[in-house]
Amino acid sequence: MLRKFSALFTLLLVVGMILSACGGAATPTAAPAATKAPEATKAPEATKAPEATKAPEATKAPEGPTGTVTLWHAYGTGSAEEKALTQALAAMKADMPGVTVNVLQIPFDQVFNKWETEVAAGGGPDMFTVPNDNTGNQARGGLIAPLDDLLKGKTDAFPAASFEGAAVDGKVYGVPGIIKAVALYYNKSTIPTPPATTAELLAMVKAGKKIEINQNNYHNFGWLTGAFGGKLMDADGVCTADKGGFADALQFMADLKAAGADFQTDGGKADTLFRQGQADMIINGPWTLGDYKKDLGDKLGVAPMPAGPGGPASPLAGVDYWHINPNSAPAQQALAVDVALYLFGPKGAQIYADVAGSPMVAKGVAAADPLVKAFADAAAAGFPRPQSKEFGNWWGPFGDAVTKVMEGQLKPAEAVAEACATMNKANGKETGAAPAEKLAGTITLWHAYGTGSTEEKALAQVLESLKKDQPDLTVNVLQIPFDQVFNKWETEVAAGGGPDMFTVPNDNTGNQARGGLIAPLDDLLKGKTDAFPLSSFDGAKVDGKVYGVPGIIKAVALYYNKSTIPTPPATTAELLAMVKAGKKIEINQNNYHNFGWLTGAFGGKLMDDTGKCTADAGGFADALQFMADLKAAGADFQTDGGKADTLFRQGQADMIINGPWTLGDYKKDLGDKLGVAPMPAGPGGPASPLAGVDYWHVNPNSAPEQQALAVGAALYIFGPKGAQIYADVAGSPMVAKGVAAADPLVKAFADAAAAGFPRPQSKEFGNWWGPFGDAVTKVMEGQLKPAEAVAEACATMNKANGK
User: Fold this and answer.
1) Taking the complete model, does pTM exceed 0.70, yes or no?
2) Pick from 136-150, 337-351, 507-521, 597-611: least confident
3) Is residue 502 a contact partner of residue 740, using CB atoms and an 8 Å limit?
4) Around Cβ 567, how many Cβ atoms within 10 Å?
5) How many other C-beta atoms can be found within 10 angstroms of the C-beta atom of residue 770?
6) Which is nearest to 517 in space by CA: 770, 760, 768, 701?
7) Which is more confident, 553 or 657?
8) What residues pair up with 98 in beta bridges, in sequence order?
């Protein structure tokens, strides 16, 4: 919270009057002259009262926080990033005049060690900014401060997911700023078309093209993992790099060097060679973009790291954070957080984007330069940097492996085996170490996937995998129709029965948790959530407790048939024109599938901060009128979702609004003709579909040992191994770290969820479903006008919520 200090000044009124008396010396008396009649004495002029001295104006205390903080950064001297920070600090000084910031630049190769040494000795500055290379170890070592309390209520300008790279053991340790992942810079004058694959790159180098590559395991991570199919660790943190892929990547790098590639241990020299045109390509990150552009101008291009035989390269994707010194006094920590929120918040972030070409996490910040977007895409396709203690022990062993191979000291397979063994030893994961937790017993689960659907097939395959890995666990499965599953669970659990676990979207998690119909899992999840982003549990968090294990990200988008809709409609006006021209669209007639129009697209807002319905203040009625116009033009609003699906799958409809749960089935029928686009935007802005997550919930009636078994099963099914099966078989966008589907349509749904409206779990939101479901029905059936339907729904919702 910004702290305002007021200064009280006493106003003094000074009135000074100086009176002087005049006296003269005696002189001889002269003969008196004839006495004249004395002149009439003039009345003395009125003495003017002296003007009152004006009281000095009170000096205003500076608004906002006040105080002095010291920060460190490791931006290169004279670099675009350093200039951006300087300009951001100048802007902050204008907006927060009461804050003084002392700045010290530390060379990058010294900054981590210097911070850790000084903080461990009880000193250090108030804050510093670095990539999250070692955040996990620093947090566990007490070298950076947890910021959860200081950030409360102040993070709206940042995506929730942007804090995950600084989340360790459930606490947040940084304020997020610059997204960082490497890509391939190239000089367009000598490389008109950049290499898309490692084979093309090798051929170019053999033909005489020059590439600079930093000889380390960071810049080459994308080849060590994704491009050659390597996987660094399994879900238990055991190094698996020696199982394949890593050695192939190192062999490719050795071949590249033999062909003429320049592997540099001096990053500055590599930069200079590229900037001066003596090299055609270089692999580097966005931190050099501004400097490269200064030298190369329009000749500069950026492309993804070349893909390999194992798939796309997956560079290590990290974020620069501001971290706070645990030794600083509480008031200093609060002040440092305010500074960090400004520098990496929208105003400071826009300066970084414009001056340094930095891709920033802050909402609403975009650089005009398309090269910046290329780096944002590189990070999105990258491997999120883990903060587990196991990953913290990868840097040294695999940095040595790269050196030993590139210097000819070891063969690739030998270097990887040595590095993996060293990493496992440091992590206590050697052969003979404690095995993964064993699950033994029988549990029953319910799901609501459609019979024969790809989601049902994915679950079946996951359970087969679970049986192989946990042979002593038996899982009994029952499929419940989706339109019955919530009611059936709630009825049976309320009566003291029900299965051990079930999976559903978090449509009603808040009410179920408050009603004691699902079990809190905090104690059962302790120490077991590293495979999941911290924010993925938010959708099952009610009153500070977690009630589910997260899995499938869900938000609707626009499916379209490319053979009849070459370019999907981007706006509601375009969609209406298409339907009037004879194109067919299927829309489920409910308030879930149309939420994106009811809110964002027409500027509607469902509730205020107190939970009071405000839909009748505008936007919702306009959205319902658009939907009525769409129906009048020929759109098919269906109450039978299965029928809507069939019409689209059979080619009798050109478009349908639906979620990722149907992706696998639609692809089976439409193949390459299937496209996915965002819901069309409206006059109020982009559509904001309701973004939710499928969770596994556990029965509060189950015995403690049964609950523990159910949680173990849930962590496997929605953990990395099970989630990858869902992604591959059903095309499901999953929350588990390191899981990615090859299908670009899956990413379109992940993007839809990211742009959506996170599903609240407040008791107030729980009372939106019925009233607004009825509103949609009454408008679409012609029973009420849009404004009347919204007014009725809002009044019903407010009455239910005591508002």
Assistant:
1) no
2) 597-611
3) no
4) 11
5) 14
6) 701
7) 657
8) none
Locus of tokens 């003007």: 51
Enumerate residues 6+ apart whose C-beta is below 8 A from 470.
438, 439, 440, 712, 716
Element (H, E) at 258: helix 246-259
Query: What are the pLDDT digits (tens) for 726-741?
Result: 988 988 889 888 776 7
**Residues facing 68 on adjacent strands:** 100
Q: What is the pLDDT of residues 529-575, one digit of tens each?
A: 888 877 789 889 998 899 999 999 889 999 999 999 999 999 999 99
Beta-carbon count within 10 A of 145 CB: 23
Contact 585, 736 (CB under 8 A): no
Quick one: tokens of 509?
């998690």
In 407-516, which ranges are continuous DSSP H helix?
412-426, 454-469, 482-494, 509-514
Count of C-beta atoms within a 10 Å radius of residue 566: 9
User: Whose CA is closest to 598, among 385, 789, 415?
Assistant: 789
**Angstrom distance (rounded) from CA 21 to CA 18:** 10
Between the alpha carbon of residue 315 and those of residues 120, 285, 309, 743, the distances in Å are: 32, 10, 16, 19
Residue 448 confidence (pLDDT) above 90: yes
What's at 519, amino acid-wise?
A: A
The predicted-structure confidence for 355-412, as pLDDT tens digits, reads as follows 998 889 898 887 778 888 788 777 767 887 888 888 889 998 999 999 999 999 999 9
Q: What is the DSSP string of 141-180?
A: TT-S---HHHHTT--TTS-GGGGGGGEETTEE--EEEEEE
Other beta carbons less than 10 A from residue 50's beta carbon: 10
Map tokens 């049986």 to a residue: 467
Beta partners for residue 233, in sequence order: 239
The Cα 226–Cα 552 span in angstroms is: 22
CB of 711 within 8 A of CB of 525? yes
Residue 193 tokens read as 């078309």
Count of beta carbons in the 10 Å neighbourhood of residue 465: 15
Question: For 200-236, b where at least 16 C-beta lie within 10 A, e where not — what string?
Answer: ebbebbeeebbbbbbbbbbbbbbbbbbbbbbbbbebb
Axis crossing angle, helix 246-259 with helix 412-426, rounded to the nearest 10: 130
Are 687 and 603 in contact by the 8 Å Cβ rule? The answer is no
The answer to whether the beta carbons of residues 215 and 402 sit under 8 Å apart is yes
Q: Which amino acid is at 369?
A: D
What does the pLDDT read at residue 210?
Answer: 98
What's the confidence (pLDDT) of residue 29?
31
Instruction: State both tokens at 256.
Output: 């590249």
- Give the SS3 label for residue 483: helix
Q: Measure the CA–CA gap between 81 and 74, rounded to whole angstroms.
A: 9
- The burial class, CB within 10 Å (0-12 / 13-18 / 19+), for 94 is exposed
* Tokens linked to 288: 């050099």
CB neighbours of residue 780 within 10 Å: 20
Query: DSSP assignment, residue 366?
Result: -
Is-contact 535 164, C-beta < 8 A?
yes
- Structure token digits, residue 167: 């989340």
Beta bridge partners of 658: 557
Output the pLDDT for position 228: 93
- Distance (Å, whole) CA 218 – CA 772: 51
Q: What are phi and psi of 475, to 5 degrees?
A: -120, 120
Is the pLDDT score of 173 beyond 90?
A: yes
C-alpha distance across the termini of the chain, in Å = 28
